[in-house]
Amino acid sequence: MSRHSASGQPHSTKTHEIESLPWGGLLALAMAGFICIMTETLPAGLLLQISSGLGVSESLTGQLVTFYALGSVAAAIPIVTATRGWRRRPLLLSCIIGFLIFNTVTAISSHYILTIIARFFAGVSAGVLWGITAGYARRMVPDRLKGKAMAVAMVGTPLALAFGVPIGTFLGSLIGWRLVFLLMSLLALALVVWVIWKFPDFPGQKAENKPLHEVITLPGMLSVLMVVFAWVLAHNILYTYIAPYLAQAGLSRRTDVILLLFGVSSVIGIWLIGVLIDSWLRELVVISLIGFAVASIFLGLGISEPVVIYIGVVIWGLTFGGAATLLQTASAESAGENADVAQAMLVTSWNLAIGGGGVVGGILLEQLGVQTLPWALVLLVVFALIIVLQAKRKGFPKKVRN
Questions:
Q1: What separation in angstroms does the CA of 311 have from each of 158, 192, 305?
Q2: Looking at the whole model, is its pTM more than 0.70?
Q3: Going by C-beta distance under 8 Å and a sequence separation of 6 or more, which residues neighbour residue 135?
Q4: What confidence tens digit (pLDDT) does each residue in 165-177 have?
Q5: How many domains does the chain divide into?
Q6: Contact between 6 and 146 (Cβ < 8 Å)
Q7: Domain limits at 227?
C-alpha cells in the first residue's frame, strides 16, 4: 500500500481519500459480514416457515437465533485470543468455510436438535469473524481513513438487512426456507474464491500485547461493552420476533416489505455514519440512541396503526444501521494495539445480547404478549444512553476538532 496518503500534504482531497481505500479487501470483508448477518437473521424473517417445517413452536424456532449467538459467545474470546498470532487471511477463510458447511447442514436437516447444533457452530464462525474484522479493516489504511474503512467493511450488515433478509423472506415463500440457506452456502463458496484472489494478508498480533484481563480494564472498555449489550439486546428483542409483532398488527403479509424498509433505512444510516464518524463519534452514538428510543415508542403506541409502524421502522433502521461501526470504532480506539482481543469481547457482549434477545423476547411473547416488546426496548435504550452520557472522557469521548 502506498504511503503517499500519509504524507500530510495539503493537496490530499476527498477524491484522493476514496482512491486510497483498498476496495477489493474492504468489500470482501463487507461480503463476509453480509453472509454473517444473513445467517444470523434469516430465522427472523422465515420464523413461521421454519417453525412449520421443523414442527416446533415459534418461540423454540426463535432459539435458532439464540444458539447462533451462543456459538459466537463461546468462540469469540478464546479462539480470537488463541489465534491472535495467526496470519489473518487463513483465519478469515476458515470462518467463511464454516458458514459454507453449517448453512448447508441447516438446509438439509430435518431434526430440530441437529439444526440447533449447526446454528451453534455457524455462530462460532461468526464470533471469530467479527473478532478480527475491525482490526483487519483498520490495518489496511492510514489513520485518517480508519473510520471510513470501518464503514465500508461494515456495510454488509445493513445491506443484508436492507436486501438480503427481505429477499430471503420473499424467496422462502417461493422456493422454501431450505433452499434459501443453500443459497447462503453458495455465496460463501464464491467468497472463498474472492478472498484467495483479492484479499491482502497480514501477520497476527504481537505476542507481548496485553492479556485479556488487562484489556477489559483499559479505560472506557467496560462502558463500551455495557452499551453494546443494552443496545443490541433492545434491537434483538423485537427483531427476532418481528414476524409475530407484525402479525398482531395485521401486517404479516408485509413482513418482507417492512424488513426491506428497515434495511434501506439502515444503509442510509451507515452512509451518514461513514461520512461523520472520524470527527463525531460521541455525538453520533447519542443521536442514534435517542432516535432508537423514539422509534421504540412509535412501535409501542402504533401497534394498531400501520402508518405509525412504518415511520417507527424507518427511524429504527436509520439509528441502528451504523451501530456496529460506531461501537467497533469506540472499542478499537479504546484498545489501541489490543484491538482484536477488544473486538472479541465486543463480539461476546454483542452475541450475549442477541441470545438474550431471543430468550427475553420469547418470554415476553409467551407471558405478556407481543405488544410489550417495544416498551422493553425503551428501558434498555435509556440505560445505554445514560452510560454514554457519563463516558465523556473514555469510551465515548468528545473529539477535539480543528
A1: 18, 39, 10
A2: yes
A3: 205, 332, 339, 340, 343
A4: 778 888 888 898 9
A5: 1
A6: no
A7: 20-390
